Structures are given as C-alpha cells and as structure tokens.
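We treat protein structure as text, and this decision shapes the records that our systems exchange. The tokens are whole numbers drawn from a learned vocabulary of local backbone shapes. One such record is reproduced below, unchanged from the form in which we store it:
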Amino acid sequence: MSESKTFSLKEVKSHNDSKSTYLVIYDKVYDVTKFLEEHPGGEEVLLEQAGGDATDAFEDVGHSTDARELMKDYLIGDIVESERKNRAVQERLTPAAPQTQSNGWSGWLIPLGIAIAAALVYRLVIAPSGA
C-alpha cells in the first residue's frame, strides 16, 4: 500500500456484514471480508466486531506474532487523525524484539549455582556408590 487511505469511523461502520467487513485495530482499518472463512475463531468473532473498533477484543484474545503479521495483508488505511483513539499504543502491532535477560549477576550466577550444585551431588552421592 503506497499511499494510505483515510476513513472516518462512520465510513467503517457501514462495512458491518459478511459482504463487506471492516475492522479498526489501533486506528488502522482492515478489510477482513476475504478472511472471514479462514479465521481460526470462526467468522462470527469477526462479524461481532464488524464496522467498529476491535482493538480491545483483538488484544484480549492474545493473538500470535504470525496473526499480527497476517494482518498486514488486510490493511487498507487509517482512521482520520481527528478520530484516532489509540495513537500511543500502535506499536503493539509490531512484534517487539525478544528481551534477553541481562540484569547483571543473576544472568550468569543462577545457572552457575545450579551447575555447582549438580556437580556436588554427583561427586558426593552418585560417584562414591559406584566405587
């Protein structure tokens, strides 16, 4: 999509049935009409939200990264600036980079402690019984 089309909430609201199904998620407009039959949760789930803002419902379900990627195929535009609600949270649709545990000493001390404990158990309990 080279140029983003803008929609009013009123325009989106008119696309609320199985012949034309638009959803708003984080102020982005998606035409999910062709996806209705493919949706893993069934088309009824999408039709319940048709023509409206489905952001909360979308997040409540906890969609996967794959689902969020698939959404890009159905993106048709944005809500007009004056009617946007979720400007600060649009980043959620972009999968975040995995966070690594790098909080100092606990990142390596805990695994080291487990390794030492395992070595002691082996030396003191398992190894002597085999001799």
Observations:
- Helices lie at 9-13, 43-49, 55-61, 65-71, 106-130.
- The mean pLDDT is 82.
